[in-house]
Design brief:
It contains six helices and eight strands, in the order βαββαβαβαββαβα. With 182 residues, it is of the alpha+beta class. The radius of gyration is 16 Å and the shape is globular.
Length: 182
């Protein structure tokens, strides 16, 4: 069962591939993502049972050594996080548009999970560092009040790490924005 997600973010592509291999050899996890991201970093994410994900992340972080930028394990991950990472979420209308932007991929995944657990919102997309200079952001929609609560909760997670770029809630955004988001 995929009830946890974890990952390592590295400053080296070569060490990233080595860390990914170590993670997969250490525990029974499903590889969610392993790729280079801007600006020359590498991200590896895996899902599975909490114990397996924790063991995999520990092994990946150890193998990363000096190239480790950040790592995370989120137990009881909200099920909306996976489709948002994969870019498969379908949204027809925007009640409001909430955005959390971070300097770290790892911190942003944690923020997205916290946001969707804090209020009845729909995660739209989690964009990870591609054409973003290494930053990441999450977009979400729901009532204005729910979006404000969710964005505040997610932004607090990122801000605690000193990695918050910006947080925004746009009430009743123009629908043209929807096609630009996904």
């Amino acid at each position: 069962m995929l009830n946890a997600i974890g990952g390592v973010e590295l400053s080296s592509v070569a060490k990233g591939m080595e860390a990914a291999d170590a993670m997969l050899k250490t525990a029974n996890v499903k590889l969610i993502l392993a790729r280079s991201v801007c600006p020359g970093k590498y991200i590896v994410m895996a899902a599975g049972d909490v114990g397996d994900v924790s063991a995999a992340v520990e092994a990946g972080a150890a193998k990363a050594a000096h190239a480790l930028v950040d790592s995370f394990v989120i137990p009881n991950i909200h099920p909306e996080v996976f489709p948002a990472i994969e870019g498969t979420t379908v949204v027809d209308t925007l009640e409001s548009l909430g955005i959390i932007e971070a300097f770290s991929i790892s911190a942003l995944i944690e923020a997205a999970d916290a946001a969707v657990k804090a209020a009845p919102v729909k995660l739209m997309e989690i964009r990870l560092a591609m054409a973003l200079g290494g930053k990441a952001f999450v977009t979400l929609t729901g009532s204005v009040g729910a979006a404000e609560t969710a964005v505040a909760a997610g932004a607090a997670v990122v801000a605690k790490k000193g990695l918050l770029v910006e947080k925004v809630v746009i009430p009743q955004p123009r629908q043209e924005l929807l096609r630009e988001l996904i």
